[in-house]
Amino acid sequence: MFSLRRAAISVFIVLIYSMECAAEEAKPVFPGKEWKTAAPAAVGLDKNKLAEMPKFMGGRGCVVRHGLMVYTWGDPAERLDIASAVKPWYTLFLLKAFEDGKIKSLDDKINIWEPRLNPLNPGLDYKDRLITWRHLANQISCYGVKEKPGEAFDYSDFNMAFFFDTLFLKVYGSTWEKVDEEVLHPLLTDVLQCQDNPTFMAFGEDRRGRMRISLRDFARFGLLYLHKGNWNGKPLINEKLAAMAYTTPLPNSISRTKGESAETIEGQRSIGGGNNQCDHAGSYSFAWWINGVGRDGQRHWPDAPADAFGAFGHGGIRVCVIFPTQDAVVCWNETNIESAEQENQAMKIFMEAFLPEKN
């Protein structure tokens, strides 16, 4: 009887231990001051297949799976411009401002914060008085073109410079000189334990708001969104808000702007380029590019998972792409990728690197 009881206790202890081990294995992994690394095969990836990525795109890059840095090419520590791939960072700080009560709604009108909008375009019924935060984040503000806010998609670096300045200088009450130390670092990159001092202010007066960041730090931002705004048990933004940012693409009923110019605030700057740069293809959601379905009924990236999404700059040259189902983040920069077709091919190569799952 005693032996049976002892055996039962032993089985119970083993069972509890196994459950604790399983829970520990299931716990998401996040980098500390340094990334934990692993061989590609340890996370189900073929190193030789991954090597096809730099052969195809050049430049430099890194691959993260299950929270581990498993493959790099080039120097992942050098800080580089990410161009328009910075725009989802603005969205994150917009969502934080909403969650923290700095703004009441994503549909608040911007002229609350920037009254210089009010006298603009009297011949167009003072249309800019209607611009909201949602319009700016989705690039449907029509700021600087004749359509009314919400009527058309205008991929515009004037829109984004206006977004950045109003959000960080007015809502957060910072300055261009101090936005890194007062907003970017304490509210985000310090929490992510970024290694290479990301900055919004590395490109001079005419490019304030562009980001210079290393690939290994950009991958941390991707990992944050892979976990829906949660970082190592701490929600930086509400999970539903984080998911909304990359799951609510513009409807195809919203057309691309005709590009006819309208009045803007005097001296309005750009963060890099002009306006009317591209269409949204049913795949633009709060400054993230997602794998949506365009007016032609086709996926934006037909060979990528349907839930893939990413931050894209310079037509795909500078990218952080998140693969939720695969629990992976891939970043690259200074590549020769310049189109959605080439982006798709790069993602296809990555997907082909997954080893068959063992039964």
Describe this structure in words.
By secondary structure, this protein is an alpha+beta fold. The chain has one domain: Beta-lactamase, CATH 3.40.710.10. It has a 7-stranded antiparallel β-sheet with strand order 2-1-13-12-11-10-9, covered by helices on one side. Strand 9 and strand 10 form a beta hairpin. It is globular.
SSE layout and pairing:
Layout: H1 2-26, H2 47-50, H3 52-57, E1 60-65, E2 68-73, E3 80-81, H4 87-99, H5 133-137, E4 152-153, H6 157-171, H7 179-189, E5 212-213, H8 215-226, E6 230-231, E7 234-235, H9 239-245, E8 255-256, E9 284-285, E10 288-290, E11 309-313, E12 318-323, E13 328-333, H10 340-351
Parallel strand pairs: 4-8
Antiparallel strand pairs: 1-2, 1-13, 3-5, 6-7, 9-10, 10-11, 11-12, 12-13
Helix pairs in contact: 4-6
CATH class: Alpha Beta
Can you tell me the CATH superfamily? DD-peptidase/beta-lactamase superfamily
Strand-pairing-aware structural class:
alpha+beta
Tally of strands: 13
Relative helix content = 25-40%
How many helices? The count is 10
Distance between the termini: 39 Å
Mean pLDDT: 92
Please summarize the sheet with the most strands: 7 strands, antiparallel
Summarize the structure in short.
By secondary structure, this protein is of the alpha+beta class.
Keywords summarizing the entry:
two-stranded antiparallel ribbon; 359 residues; 10 helices; alpha+beta
